[in-house]
Task: inverse folding
């Protein structure tokens, strides 16, 4: 059994077996002449050896360690923050970042990690994406050298947990209208006071650091502030959980309530102003969602296929014998295949510096819409049993609604694409 340790990665990370593990799907070597319903257009042939290794490591961890926990976690709406530590030990957090204890893998490899996690549950992937892309990615791209050195290694190990606060109760799709404000402290130089509320924030109740976007009172421009919970006096920062969700129940979601919360000037991103900051972080996370949702869809396909082969109706025939059932599977497999290939292409372009935000909008929108649509259709194959959480399909359907909604609802991405196509903006 050979092991791979990826470059730049000092701790026990991404150690993988290249030997095929029957429990880990996704990268089986297929004969060129046979059709592989799990990878019909041989997307795996587009991957480097390192990407295959990263994907296998992630798949193995997710199938062996996450899958056995998810049903109970979803029922109890209980997110185990140890998961981020486990992911950190494997080098799965902030994996595309170079240095700071991160693995420094390609964008596609990062997407294969999200795909593996989301094959189990979109909530687990959300917790990881917020940590990796939104907060670590933001600090890496825009933070001062001191902030990066101080926070990124601990975040890569999953010891420091992050949340990303952009959405507000009155401003979701239109974050430019945000009301959260940062004022200079009237007495203390080099300190800002943040006031306002953010809502629907993944990880906020457990986060040690919260990347909060607020308008600087003196300029009216949006700036990024890294709020460190340990530095917040009592009563200035509250992060109550939002309970009783009907999707993404295996992740933890909450609010961020700021009441003159003091933040040192060094914790403000020094250069970036306006929506460029949050949108740049979202770009990377949206890429992860595009490949991630393909993992959820593939799991729906695998579950529906197995069920259709086992369940017999009318003269002892398996459901899989019926044309209408086969069409549902054919449509879903086709959409998963196209979505995966498109995401690999955009990942390559991103690493070459040729990806535009519209490309990310295109794959985020298409893959989320297709994953949700097909999951809903495949759910029908399970008949009444779909209503039991034991079958897993209903959980994916509920989760995929959220993926279609957050980080730019699909219709908002249509407007981004429409603007790029016509040159006319239709937001307001
Ligand atoms: C479980 C969960 C986790 C989340 N995690 C985070 C997080 O970690 N950080 C964070 O900042 N946010 C997070 N969000 C928030 C999420 O990003 C927002 O819900 C999303 O941006 C949509 O905003 P909204 O809910 O206010 O909907 P609205 O903006 O009120 O939109 C409602 C509907 O109207 C449509 N609409 C709005 N404007 C237009 C228009 N001009 N033209 C046409 N249609 C329009 C939208 O497409 C949508 O269908 C999370 C949400 C959920 C549910």
Result:
């Amino acid at each position: 059994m050979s092991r791979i340790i990826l470059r730049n990665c000092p701790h026990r990370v991404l150690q993988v077996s290249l030997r095929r593990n029957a429990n880990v799907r996704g990268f089986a070597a297929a004969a060129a002449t046979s059709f592989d319903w799990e990878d019909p257009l041989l997307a795996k042939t587009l991957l480097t050896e390192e990407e295959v290794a990263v994907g296998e490591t992630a798949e193995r961890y997710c199938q062996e360690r996450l899958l056995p926990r998810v049903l109970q976690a979803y029922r109890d709406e209980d997110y185990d923050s140890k998961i981020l530590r486990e992911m950190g030990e494997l080098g799965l957090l902030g994996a595309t970042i170079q240095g700071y204890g991160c693995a420094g893998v390609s964008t596609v490899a990062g997407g294969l990690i999200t795909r593996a996690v989301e094959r189990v549950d979109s909530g687990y992937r959300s917790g990881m994406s917020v940590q990796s892309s939104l907060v670590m990615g933001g600090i890496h791209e825009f933070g001062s050298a001191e902030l990066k050195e101080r926070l990124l290694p601990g975040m890569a190990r999953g010891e420091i947990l992050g949340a990303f606060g952009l959405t507000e109760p009155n401003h979701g799709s239109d974050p430019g209208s945000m009301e959260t404000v940062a004022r200079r402290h009237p007495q203390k130089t080099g300190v800002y006071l943040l006031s306002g509320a953010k809502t629907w924030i993944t990880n906020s109740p457990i986060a040690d650091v919260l990347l909060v976007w607020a308008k600087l009172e003196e300029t009216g421009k949006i700036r990024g502030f890294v709020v460190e919970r340990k530095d917040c006096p009592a009563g200035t920062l509250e992060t109550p959980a939002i309970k009783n969700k009907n999707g993404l129940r295996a992740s933890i979601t909450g609010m961020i309530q700021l009441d003159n919360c003091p933040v040192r000037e060094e914790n403000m991103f020094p250069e970036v102003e306006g929506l460029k900051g949050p949108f740049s972080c979202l770009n990377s996370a949206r890429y992860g969602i595009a490949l991630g949702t393909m993992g959820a869809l593939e799991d729906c396909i695998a579950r529906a296929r197995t069920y259709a082969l086992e369940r017999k109706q009318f003269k002892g025939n398996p459901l899989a014998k019926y044309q209408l059932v086969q069409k549902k599977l054919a449509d879903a497999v086709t959409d998963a295949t196209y979505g995966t290939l498109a995401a690999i292409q955009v990942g390559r372009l991103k690493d070459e510096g040729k990806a535009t935000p519209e490309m990310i909008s295109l794959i985020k929108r298409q893959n989320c819409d297709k994953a949700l649509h097909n999951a809903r259709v495949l759910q029908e194959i399970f008949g009444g049993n779909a209503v039991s959480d034991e079958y897993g399909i209903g959980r994916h359907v509920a989760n995929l609604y959220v993926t279609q909604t957050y980080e730019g609802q699909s219709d908002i991405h249509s407007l981004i694409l429409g603007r790029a196509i016509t040159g006319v903006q239709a937001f307001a």
User: Anything to note?
Assistant: Residues 130, 164-167, 172-173, 200-202, 248, 253, 402, 405-407, 409, 411-412, 427 surround flavin-adenine dinucleotide (CB under 6 Å). Confidence is low (pLDDT under 50) at residues 1-13, 15-26. The first strand starts at residue 98 and ends at 99. Residues 22 and 337 are 21 Å apart (CA to CA).
